[in-house]
Specification:
The protein is built from 30 helices and no strands. The chain is mainly alpha-helical.
Length: 784
């Protein structure tokens, strides 16, 4: 027979719910007894009890103990402020309803900037709901504030002393594991290639690949395991969450690396770069595992990686010259080719640029640079990961005065600026978070109005019932209404039977209260939402019968109040967003793809301007607005996806398909980052005419942007996407023509600019390959 704790651990990860419930079962009755029996103040006792409930059962901050206590203290101060505001607004019906709507909007929407705020939103709302639904004069503020203050102090002590939560950073740990696994994969691949594809090493190579895929998949699961983006306002949390997209991109680069043809010599510089990258990832994983650790080993490894990248970039023109030398038979056609595209003709005796006769030479030149490009692409990805980890450690090493003053490590914006940036991303009519915030605010304000106008005995439970069952669409709200009412009725029946057996003796209720609190905290995670509602009804039946014995009538009143609150929730759900997150997910995907593709086009355009003559290169402006727009769309998509995951019921589209579509957006944006980084080192001093190369790359980026624009329109309309753009070998030929004719130094040698042009084409080709991974999941999504 399975042990009860083992059974619970399978349903309650890390026993988090049991931990919260255990603390609450100790502190909440103690605070209630102190206020009711010792101080003998009913208002103080009520606010002390519900304050303990709000700050211990409804919220559980993570991270180091210092960060948890800081968050708990901020919650306490904000809660005390809301108690005062709620009491002041409680005297007038319309003021209380409007104030509830405003506070609801601010609190729910504020969660978009931080997972800490998002996780504490219910607790914060309860601090306002309790006083605003219990009208009282201003003279009641001190007693209410004293009760909430008592609960705040007790909660701080409980968090620190009563079964403290282990310092945990599941996303950080998962990212570190993924870095180690990817490093092992790279080392195994290099050993296999250097050995001449020795069959004895093939098994190690395959096992390393499989372990790396499992580690990256585990990191993705941790990232998507919460209903909000797992990042806080503190600097270290903001940097860690960036690693997810970057590690996903690195994994995709390794997945799509093409094995060299049999007999191809081993590219030693590329292998050296891959080993240097593996070392960087290993040092980065070590630094992630130590809070505020020494970053010197990581920086030294990063310096070696950047040296290897410079070597690859310096050698690439020689590789291009070797394969494209005029001495070769095929190169004569390139030397005098005519650029047929765009009407830019050049007379020659050779075949037209990009013609079938040129394809073998184009393939040979592209193939010659492919290992160098793959190495450069991988090196850039690992460099970005390393710099992010370095920033994380730098943020954690700051002195307390730097933290207080908000001084950030170089390369990071401040906390306030980051919060403004995230909030601004959701001031958009397509934002699911904004939809949820408006709907929640209207629902809570309407619940206060209805409760006051109907004269129910406990209007608090009408509002709390509205908050507890309101979800992202009318259907799931209706499902929660049924569960909530069934649970409430069950709790009422059980409580009524117990009160009938106990009679007027409240002593036994004091013993039963902690047990009921413990069950109320564990039941939602271990059993169901309905079981949690039943247990919460029991807690309230016991609590109000201790204050003022009324028998089973208390339970009956709670059923009535919850029913009214549920009705308000259903009405608001029907009026404001009956479609739910699933209907918005396709639109959010389309918008994110469009904005990311536009950012990529802007990066290519920047590169083409950057490689002009010096004056034009200096005037080239980076597409910062496009980058910001793409990042904002990605944030809205992430929140829409999380809302979709949080909805109850079966998902018509397999989550693996939807997750793949969401992940691909990050790959598209990071490809644009890579193109931007590639051309930031160009100064436009190399002589030559770039017109043909610029025209070809801009045409390619426009085609890609057009494909993603079409994808967005089809996703929104529910139509299947077009086929992905194929690899255009004729375009390869035209690009090579442009490079050979326009981007040669005076001595006829290939230039670093020519290499950047070809590598930009490779980045665009990588984005085309990404379309092949998108099309089938998109067809499944619109088909359902």
């Amino acid at each position: 027979m399975q042990h009860p704790l083992q059974w619970l651990a399978q349903r309650d990860r890390d026993l988090a719910a049991l931990r919260r419930a255990g603390r609450s079962a100790i502190v909440m009755p103690a605070m209630f007894a102190l206020g009711d029996k010792v101080i003998q103040n009913a208002a103080l006792a009520t606010f002390a009890a519900f304050g303990s409930f709000a700050m211990l059962l409804l919220v559980d901050f993570g991270g180091p103990m210092r960060a948890r206590l800081e968050a708990q203290l901020a919650l306490s101060v904000t809660g005390c402020t809301f108690v005062c505001l709620g009491t002041l607004a409680s005297r007038t019906v319309w003021i209380s309803a409007v104030a509830m709507a405003v506070i609801g909007l601010v609190v729910i929407f504020a969660g978009v900037v931080s997972s800490v705020l998002a996780g504490a939103s219910t607790s914060l709302l309860l601090a306002f709901i309790l006083p605003v639904t219990n009208p009282a004069p201003i003279s009641a503020v001190p007693d209410r504030l004293a009760g909430w203050g008592m609960a705040s102090g007790a909660a701080l002590l409980a968090v620190a002393l009563l079964w403290p939560t282990p310092a945990r950073g599941p996303l950080r740990d998962a990212a570190a594991s993924a870095c180690r696994a990817l490093a092992a994969r790279m080392r195994a691949e290099v050993a296999f290639r250097i050995s001449g594809d020795d069959p004895a090493l093939a098994g190690d190579h395959e096992r390393a690949d499989a372990i790396a895929e499992q580690a990256v998949a585990a990191m993705r699961r941790v990232f998507l395991a919460t209903p909000f983006r797992p990042t806080g306002l503190n600097t270290a949390a903001r940097t860690v969450v960036r690693l997810v997209d970057e590690i996903n991109w690195l994994d995709a680069i390794l997945d799509h690396s093409v094995a060299p043809r049999a007999g191809t010599p081993v590219n030693r510089p590329a292998c050296a770069l891959k080993l240097a990258a593996a070392t960087v990832l290993e040092r980065g994983a070590e630094l992630l595992g130590a809070t505020g650790g020494d970053a010197r080993p990581l920086r030294e490894a990063l310096d070696e990686l950047q040296t290897a990248m410079r070597t690859i970039e310096a050698n690439a023109p020689a590789e291009l010259q070797l394969k494209g030398s005029p001495a070769t038979a095929s190169a004569s056609s390139f030397a005098s080719a005519s650029i047929s595209a765009g009407g830019n003709d050049r007379s020659s005796s050779g075949p037209a640029a990009g013609s079938d006769d040129n394809l073998p030479a184009a393939r040979e030149l592209i193939s010659a640079l492919d290992p160098s490009f793959r190495a450069q692409e991988l090196g850039y990805a690992v460099s970005v990961i390393a710099e992010n980890i370095d920033l994380t450690a730098a943020a954690e090493r700051r002195s307390w005065i730097d933290r207080v003053l908000g001084r950030q490590p170089k390369g990071l914006i401040g906390t306030v600026a980051a919060a403004q940036q995230r909030a601004a991303a959701h001031i958009d009519l397509s934002s699911v978070w904004l939809h949820n915030s408006v709907r929640g605010a209207v629902g809570l304000g309407l619940a206060v109005l209805v409760a006051n106008e109907t004269g129910v005995q406990h209007s608090f439970w009408v509002v709390l019932g509205t908050l507890s069952v309101l979800r992202s669409n009318a259907l799931s709200t209706g499902q929660n209404i049924v569960r909530g009412l069934l649970g409430t009725v069950a709790g009422f029946v059980v409580g009524g039977l117990l009160l009938t057996l106990i009679g007027a003796d409240t002593t036994l209720l004091w013993f039963l209260l902690p047990i009921a609190i413990l069950f109320a905290g564990v039941a939602p995670a271990a059993i169901s939402f309905a079981a949690g509602q039943a247990a919460l009804t029991l807690v309230l039946v016991f609590l109000f019968n201790i204050i003022q014995p009324a028998g089973w009538d208390v339970g009956l009143v709670r059923v009535q109040d919850i029913a009214i609150g549920c009705g308000v929730s259903l009405l608001v759900g029907l009026l404001f967003w009956p479609r739910g997150a699933g209907a918005e997910l396709r639109r959010a995907l389309g918008a994110a793809y469009v904005d990311s593709a536009r950012y990529l086009s802007g990066a290519v355009d920047f590169g083409m301007r950057r490689c002009e003559v010096t004056a034009a290169a200096a005037a080239a402006v980076e597409p910062t607005e496009d980058a910001a727009r793409a990042a904002a769309s990605a944030r809205r998509l992430d929140d829409t996806f999380r809302s979709y995951l949080a909805e109850r019921g079966s998902k018509p589209v397999p989550l693996a398909e939807i997750s793949g579509l969401v992940t691909a957006v990050g790959g598209l944006r990071i490809a644009a980052d890579a193109v931007l980084d590639l051309w930031q080192r160009e100064d436009g001093t190399v002589p030559g005419d770039r017109a043909a190369a610029r025209e070809q790359l801009l045409r390619s980026s426009e085609q890609i942007e057009g494909w993603y624009d079409n994808l967005a329109a089809r996703l929104a309309d529910g139509r299947p996407p077009n086929a992905p753009l194929g690899h255009d070998e004729l375009a390869d030929g035209r690009l090579i023509d442009a490079v050979r004719n326009d981007l040669r130094a005076a001595d006829g040698r290939a230039t670093a600019t020519a290499v950047r042009v070809i590598w930009t084409g490779d980045h665009l080709d990588a984005v085309r390959r990404l379309q092949q991974l998108i099309v089938e999941p998109a067809r499944v999504a619109v088909g359902q």
